């Protein structure tokens, strides 16, 4: 508003002043969308209308929505992790995540929604260490892999051995994550 987003153009205004006005209008619209998103309970600043989009879907589309989300088994401690790895007949993908982690949200909203990534991830047992609360168990899991915090992804082969050279830290776009998934599956 300070930049004149709500004021009409004056005659003879050109160049930088016009550009500033356009930028002001764009920022005002983004700000309004973020406020609406916050009021509706949206958690992702990159998609402030996520709750409204899902609320407006017809009941028949709900089945499609559930297939859109990847279901991770939540791991609370090292003992549960060891058990899940031992019982798996597939390679394991362990995702370290937290609700307050913006890079984790990017992984979830961009990388994990890519159809190519989803197809490859279907060959893994998917585990998630949710370290949102930073409990002693969370800290122990992070320490086990020498991690400072999320996001991080650890891979295990079918025999339950960690594939240490594929440890992935930070956000990776689909194009960078797909080769890592293929290597974890033994593909080139």
Describe this structure in words.
The protein has 188 residues and is α/β, with parallel strands linked by helices. The chain has 2 domains: 1-68, no CATH class; 69-184, Glutaredoxin. It has helices at 15-40, 50-55, 62-68, 78-87, 102-111, 115-121, 136-144, 174-184; strands spanning 73-75, 92-97, 125-130, 152-156, 168-169. A 5-stranded mixed beta sheet has the order 1-3-2-4-5, covered by helices on one side. The N and C termini lie far apart (53 Å).
Compile the SSE list and pairings.
Layout: H1 15-40, H2 50-55, H3 62-68, E1 73-75, H4 78-87, E2 92-97, H5 102-111, H6 115-121, E3 125-130, H7 136-144, E4 152-156, E5 168-169, H8 174-184
Parallel strand pairs: 1-3, 2-3
Antiparallel strand pairs: 2-4, 4-5
Helix pairs in contact: 6-8
Number of strands: 5
First and last CA, distance: 53 Å
CA-based shape: elongated
Kindly report the CATH topology of the largest domain: Glutaredoxin
The share of residues in helices is 40-55%
How would a textbook summarize the main sheet?
5 strands, mixed
Indicate the low-confidence ranges by residue numbers. 56-67
Counted by DSSP, the helix tally is 8
Radius of gyration: 22 Å
List its traits.
single chain; Glutaredoxin; 2 domains; 5-stranded mixed beta sheet; 8 helices; 5 strands; elongated
């Amino acid at each position: 508003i300070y930049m004149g987003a709500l004021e009409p153009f004056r005659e003879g205004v050109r160049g930088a002043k016009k550009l500033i006005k356009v930028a002001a209008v764009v920022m005002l619209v983004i700000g309004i969308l973020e406020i609406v998103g916050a009021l509706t309970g949206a958690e992702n600043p990159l998609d402030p209308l996520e709750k409204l989009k899902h609320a407006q879907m017809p009941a028949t589309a709900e089945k499609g929505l559930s297939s859109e989300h990847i279901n991770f088994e939540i791991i609370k401690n090292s003992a549960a992790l060891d058990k899940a790895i031992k019982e798996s007949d597939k390679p394991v993908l362990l995702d370290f995540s937290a609700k307050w982690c913006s890079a984790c949200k990017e992984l979830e909203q961009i990388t994990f929604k890519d159809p190519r990534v989803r197809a490859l991830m279907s060959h893994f047992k998917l585990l998630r260490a949710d370290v949102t609360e930073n409990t002693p168990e969370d800290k122990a899991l992070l320490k086990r892999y020498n991690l400072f915090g999320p996001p991080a992804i650890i891979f295990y082969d079918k025999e339950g051995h960690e594939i240490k050279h594929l440890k992935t830290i930070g956000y990776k776009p689909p194009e960078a994550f797909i080769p890592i998934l293929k290597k974890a599956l033994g593909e080139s």
